[in-house]
Amino acid sequence: MDDDSTTDEYRRALEVAHRRALRWLDSLEERPIRPEVAVDAILSRLHRPLGAEGLDAAAVVEELAEAAEPGLMAMGSSRFYGFVIGGAYPAALAADWLVSTWDQNTGSRQPTPATAAVEEVAAAWLLEVLGLPAESGVGFTTGATSANLSCLVAGRDALLRRRGFDPVAGLQSAPRIRFLAGDAVHTSVVLAGRIAGLGAPHTVGADEQGRIDVAALARALADGDGPALVALQAGDVHSGAFDDFTAAIEVARAADAWVHVDGAFGLWAAASPALHHLVEGLATADSWATDAHKTLNVPYDCGVAIVRDEAAMTASLGAHAAYLPVVESVSDPYDRVPELSRRARGVTVWAALRSLGRRGVVDLIDGLVDAAAALAEGFRTIPGLEVRNDVVFTQVCLAAGDDAATAALGDWLRAEGTVWASSSTWQDRTVVRFAVSNRGTDAEAVRRTVDAVARGAAALGIR
Ligand SMILES: *Cc1c(COP(=O)(O)O)cnc(C)c1O
Known about the structure:
Order of helices and strands: HHHHHEHEHEHEHEHEEHHEEHEEH
Structural class: alpha/beta
Distance between the termini: 69 Å
CATH class of the largest domain: Alpha Beta
CATH architecture of the largest domain: 3-Layer(aba) Sandwich
Strand content: 5-15%
CATH topology of the largest domain: Aspartate Aminotransferase, domain 2
Bound molecules: pyridoxal-5'-phosphate
Shape: globular
Radius of gyration: 23 Å
Number of helices: 14
Helix content: 40-55%
CATH superfamily of the largest domain: Type I PLP-dependent aspartate aminotransferase-like (Major domain)
């Protein structure tokens, strides 16, 4: 194949992708949010023998888009509230296309100077907007789960080194680390702890919104001895609640514990002066995990691991000289994440932040919080429904008088298609969870959402 035809094949394939991408984006606000068909229907279209002969690139992309579209969830819609899922800013999405096109394996600074530099700028901006120590190490991971893992591993090893134990020798003969968290600890932290060899956390208790019981944490720390790692939470997935960082970190410091904060979506509260009360003391922790693919609205996948002591991070995650507690030269991207090879996912963070500016970031966060408050206010006007949580951030848990009616309302909403919210169980009650995470959730989206919920409640005879 000569160069011209290679270029031509790229052009034709990318043109199809461009056309189908715009068509998808144009449909987002008006199509039903739920997928039109389930996974079996897509499988029945696509799952055939591979066949001996290949297909032209443009035809492949067309076939893919045609087959996939009916099974796509409109996760980028302003009325998608499931799980905690952000949309994608135009600058971030377009930058992501370039990241794929450039195809830079951004592990090391020297061979990929451009993308490594863009990520370093993105990291510095992130620390600035989140009010975290500027000297922190930042790794761009696949998500908050691997960011939690990265931070827990850094903390685990730092604690072991403080006891004179070299973590490179492995955990089999290492001192036992006590791993503590509140009862509302996210499953991702539990998983990360298991992978890190810490086991499931000892949960010390929490209040009715999910905030860690600080007095119980103090007692648990005083009851035992040996190194301790405490996982706190910024943003409970049901209530949106934030732990009392000032008090919890003071208690943890007294026990010489490492303090990690899972702030997959909640860490972003630190970017808004209006939300200062939620995050007081947050910046004094040792490590933080967050996502850019949630609140910052960059495309999947992009999480961020942040460790105050960068040397501790690179000592644990670095691909070389892992036994050296101090790294003197500038670290490489692969020294701060669990992978060697990876896409330059931090470029989307640069693009989103560059397009927003500091004021745009504040407006994004305040807009999500305002939308959650407006949803709660609207829901409270609907007879027979109640908002179960204190709406302090972006999460709203809705319930009818009994669990069966709440479950039916969740099913009705998802089937009707104007909105998509997850059903869950919280504080022993069935709830419909609205996690406001999309930059487009404005007053009109809120109005249409409240209207859909009111129609659902009426259709189900909830009063
Ligand atoms: C989403 C979430 C995680 C996990 O993040 P992923 O990006 O899905 O790996 C962890 N903690 C909290 C509080 C979350 O909301």
